[in-house]
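User: Fold this; tokens only.

Assistant: Input:
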Amino acid sequence: MTVTFKGIDHIQLAAPEGCEKEARRFYGEMIGLKEIPKPENLQGRGGCWFQFGSQEVHIGVQQAFVPATKAHPGLLVEGLKEFRSSLIQKGIEIKEDTPINGRCRFFVSDPFGNRIEFLEYN
């Protein structure tokens, strides 16, 4: 069998029941991602989906939700410095971590406590 790995289609982050309004505010309004429709057959599960470049970020409802405080997506952006300033102006707390050679990066937490990394190669 031969398989070719082509990339990541989407990432899913868990959130508590009733998360949609806050997810839309954070990921849509504050981060700036475009919401995309969930397939009709999945809409009853709650949550919402967003476009991130050619990938998607899915916010899914999880019973007995516990935030991912170590596991995280690393989201690649251009204009990281300006993006960082924009997030600070919107009241989003920026968290630093150990530097990695050749990358600028920082972390934020979504409204549900999930860790998210934004990075840019230099």
